[in-house]
Input
Amino acid sequence: MIIKLKTVCPEIIGRLPNGEYNVTDGSSAQKALALALESKGMPVPEEEKLAKLMYVINSHSSKGDVILQDGDQLMVLRPVIGG
Output
């Protein structure tokens, strides 16, 4: 399935190009990010770091374990710290 991915956290995952990525059907947001990184030959951070990122699916804040659908737009942001 194809998703549209945008990332805003280069200090955590590197400079992954924004765009369309082909990921495995039934992938979670976190898994889709890992697959996109692997497709560009980039290292995948430990699961603990991936779990702390913020995931926005189709303009709605979500958890990393939410399953994506074909055509979804996924934005990955650095975690919000402070208060």
